[in-house]
Structure formats: C-alpha cells, structure tokens
Amino acid sequence: MTTALDTTTVDTPLLAVRDLRVDFAGPHGPVPAVRGVDLTLRRGETLGIVGESGSGKSVTALSVLGLLPGTARVSGSVRLDGRELVGLPGKELAAIRGRRVAMVFQDPLSAFTPVYRIGDQIAEAVRIHQRVDKATARRRAAELLDLVGIPAPDRALDSFPHEFSGGMRQRAMIAMAVANEPDILLADEPTTALDVTIQAQVLDVLRTARRETGAALVLVSHDLGVIAGTADRVAVMYAGRVVETAGVDELFEAPHHPYALGLIGALPRLDGRGGPLVPIPGAPAPMAELPPGCPFAPRCPLAQDRCSTAEPVLEPASEGAGDHLSACVRSAELAGRRPAPAEVYPVPELPAPSGGSGRSGRSDGSDRSDRSDRSGRAPVLAVSGLGKTFPLLKGTVFKRKVGEVYAVDGVDLDLREGETLGLVGESGSGKSTTLFELLRLGAPESGRIELLGHDTARLTRAEAHRLRAELQIVFQDPMASLDPRMPIGDIVAEPLLTQRAPRAEIARRVPELLRQVGLDPEHAVRYPHQFSGGQRQRVSIARALAVRPKLLVLDEPVSALDVSIQAGVLNLLQALKAELGLSYLFVSHDLSVIRHLADRVSVMYLGRTVEQGEVSAVFDRPRHPYTRALLSAVPLPDPAAERARDRVLLAGDPPSPTERRAGCPFRTRCPRYAGLTTPADRTRCEQERPALTGDPGADHQAACHHPEPPPADAHGG
Length: 717
Prior knowledge:
Helix content is 32%, strand content 21%. By secondary structure, the protein is α/β, with parallel strands linked by helices. Among the domains are: 40-65 and 89-238, Rossmann fold; 371-612, Rossmann fold (3-Layer(aba) Sandwich); 625-702, no CATH class.
C-alpha cells in the first residue's frame, strides 16, 4: 500500500519506496531482512522509522543508497524524484550519494577516516560534487562546522576524529552530510550512544540543518520519545515489514496495531507514576523461521485463529482512517475503542514490599517512599567526600607524569535498606569510577565509604571477602560479562563456589535462582549465545543473587535492550526488590528509567554530587541548573507535550577532568551563571566551590550558590 505523508506539500513524492525486499545469503539459503516495505517521503518532511532490533529499520535506510554489502539481494523499487535507484550502476549512485541523498551514521567514529583531519574530510565531500578549489572548500567546511555548533571552527578543521567528543563527532558528521545541501538526509540512530544533553544538541543541529537546506529527513530510531518530538509521520516496522504508519500525533494517541500499542506501553516515562510496565511477551522470531500468517501473532494477546493463516495487508482500519494504515485484522476494533496498553497486554502483579522497601507495586503514584521513615531503616551505603585521581602520563617508551585526572572529586551517597538509589550524569561524570571504588572494598584515596556499617578502610582481607557476598554487580553488557564457554548453570553457581558453599546447596539453589528470574531450570545446560539479550541479563541477575546479597549494583543493566525486553527486566528488578528486601544502586543515563525505578536520585557532574534527594522532589522541583538541563533534554513519548516543553540546551561538553578549577565547575555551561548581573554573584561562582546544602531537615540538597527556591509548601524539596 502507498502512504501519502503530508497533504500540505506537493503531490509528487520526493522518495517513493515500493515493495522493497532485501535478502541476505545464509548457510541454508536466503534469509529475508526486509519483506515488501512501502514508504513515501515528501519534500521538507520528517519520517520516523521505529521498531525492535532486527525489524529491518537500518537495512531499509541503507538500501536506499545502495550501501548494503555484496551478500544482500535487493528487489522492488526505490524512486528519487521518479528516478529508479535499485539496480543503478555504482558510478551513477556515487553521484547521488552526498549530493541528493546524504547519510548520518550511528557511529561517526567508524564513519570518519581516522588518519585524516576533520576539515579535509568535509572539504573532500564538497569538492566531489562541486567545482571549487581547496581554499574555497576549506572555508565551506569551516562554515558548516560553525553551523552545527562546533566551537572555534577554524581550529577544529585541523583536528582528527579521535580528538572530538562523541557529540562533536556526530555534529561534524551532520556537517559533512549537509555540505552539498542534499534533498534527503537519512539518519540511522544518530543519537543512540550519546548522553541525553548531547542528544538534545544533535537533534537541534538536525533541525537547523533541515531548516537551512530544506532537506527531508528519514530518522531511524528505537527511541519513541525522539520520534515523538521530531517526526511528522511514523512507520512502525516488525519482522521486515511496516505494520503501522500514521501521522505522529495519531499514532501516539490511538495506535491501530497491537505491536505499536505494546511499544508505547513498555516505555518508562519521565512523567510517569511508577508501578509495573507493560512488556510485550516473548521475542521476535528469527527472520529465517517466521511463522505462517502474521509474524506478530505468537506474541499478540489479541491473536485469533485467522491470524495464523494469512499475513494481514497494510490498509486503513476504516473508511475514515485516511492515511493511518495498519496491518492487523483487528485494527478496526482497536481504532474504535482506543484501549490503553494495560487493557490489552497482561500487567504483572508485583509483590508487596518486604522489610521496609521504599516502593510497592502500586501504579497510582502513591508507592513512593515516605522521607520521614528513612531514619528507621538501616543504612546500607554511606559515602562522603569520595575522591579518586589517576596520573596523566605522557610519552611512548619512557612515560612521565604530567598531571592528574580528577575522576571523582567529592561524591556523597546515602542508601538505606530496601531503597533504590539512582546515580545519573553525563559520560565522564565519574559514575563508573565511583562504582569501582565501592566494589574494591578498600581504603579510598580520600573520603569515607561505609558499607553495611563497615568502614572499608579498616577491613582485613578476610572481612572484605565475607563482605563481598553482600555486594554484587550486574553489568551493562551481559554477553561480555558471561563466560561463553560455560553453561548458564555453572555461571550461576560460580559465586556459590567462590564462597565455598556445599555442593548440595549449589544443586538446590541454581534451579531456584533460574525460576526466580523467569528462566526455565531445564535450560541450565545451555550456553549464553543460545539466549536473547534480555534472557542473558536475567542470567546475570540470577548470578548476582546467588549469594543472597543485600546490595545490588546495577551498571546500565537495560541500556543495551529493546524497549519491550527492557520493560520485562525492570519489572523483574522491582519484583525481586520487593520480594527479597534488596537495596539497589542503579546507574543509568536514562532518566526515565530512574524516574520509574528509583526512590532517591543522586546527580553527578565532573566527579561531584551536585544534587540529591527523593526522586519526585528532584525531578519535579530540580534546584540545580544542571539537573534542570538534564530533565529538559529527556524526550517524552507524547508529541503534544514534547512540542510544548521548554528546552535548556547546554553549551558544549563538560570541561576536562585534568584541571581542578576554582569555584563552581559547572559555570562554563551554566545558564544561571550566564544570566547573573551582579559582580559579587559572578565572583562567588568563579572563586567559591559550592557545597551540598538544603533547608534544615530536608532530604533535597543541591550544590549551587543560586539554586531554584523550594516551593512555598515544601521544605527544601
């Protein structure tokens, strides 16, 4: 089916994709990746493409420019202004790439040539398509870097890719993409690996590039919040096909396909109220083993017998649906009654909290911990003034110390029994170094760490070994943290063996642990590669729980998972915390996840704690300008709300941690400091280092000389 993407633009589509099919060579024959995709893109429009990993989003985008490997077989039609691109000779396609259609890749470090300077690579992109001399191309490159917000563009031209931060590399990639004012920008997950503040900058740069060039944009993303705030229309892909397409407002307000409804329900939201998420059951079938009929039927709670006989076509749910198309036999029913995700998908019932847990499974927003009862719960972790430096070395053969890296420079943490403490901040803020200092169970370089009442600086080796069983960690990448040569039963048993548990207890505990995290004990003989990403993370959680810890450190445990799988893992963590009375130290760059899961939050910037307190107090009434900027940069999966929000865009990247500056380290990016008019106020920020302070007896503290005042009816938070 064709999709008219904007009735306000001209009728002739700029890009028309019809029945696009892509197969890759496999050991047992061709494996489909894209199975009959139809898309239409009109001038000046933004089309968002969303779906889980393996749904065919990136393959669809890459096939437009013929950038797929030689093992791919492409059929169907891709027309640019009426000109067929499928089957076009390589020389003719090369003339189109960069000039008519440009690509912004997910990983700019891989897309740039590492041995050439940034300016030379952008200038080369200009000279390939325009007859200009080197000096003119270099001036154009500087103009482009200035357009995308690179500071000191004339100097930046001579930098190599590795000398740029991730956000600067992505901005430079966008500069190179718009160098020849293309008609279409294809952006493949351009913000996936970036901090939320840098993501906001990159999205703003994309909007600027579109405005300056008039280009249409195809934005591939797994983040529905990014799509909600950027796209005009959305195409939802599953198993290599578009299963729903509509205007962005219509899709988020009333999805007509159960899969799109499930994706929206699985999202933790910054404006959410806690309680269980609504996960999509199961996992997508391998593309080589798709079931007959609708490929989503095995996971669909609305599936009927007819769903397994024929694959539904993409069509309007009813006569009045217009351009809102859905590939589901029950789309008319969904369009009519507009159910909430929880009305279609089963919502897990979380157990009641055990032993003073800070939260329950209630979903009405009343499950937050009461600040006044924290004093009655035993301290689990208390950190004050934590500091850690690393030597800055120079030289290849004979290294010499030329300075220090202040990785952690004043961290304060307070975690009680049954609580979840979220630790947030940009990359380089010192979160990981803080975790390593905690896990080392030794004397910190400076400051104090108390774990379960024990001062780690005074622990003997035997005491540290015993205490280690009380503190376990779940890493970000389960595939990297699980030994691929060991079956998962042995992996889960390993901590018990380390603690010298009896073999009879190990044989009893392993099946019990696998059941506890939602895995089949009979699969204990399988190896990690035989499980999905979400299942591997459940194995990691089971291993961490083996020695019955009291504190679980979770280092970005869901950042590598699709949103539907992420929802199941987050629900599991909530259930385990309530059932076992665990305490969590949860590190994440996703503030929506922290809002959903945490009781309290600690915000870090450049190695320091700049704000902390009860999560709703910090998120609803942030007092530090850095926290305000972080929260304003988090996209909401609600197009109307996203368009109405005020943005606080931070300038540039955090300063280098190799220099310990006087005064407030945030002032170089602080909008509050930039607006100060009194010399005394500016001098205080420049010379006096702010300490964490709050109203007497308040749990909400901020390290700012000019914090936002608390509401009249609140006490510091």
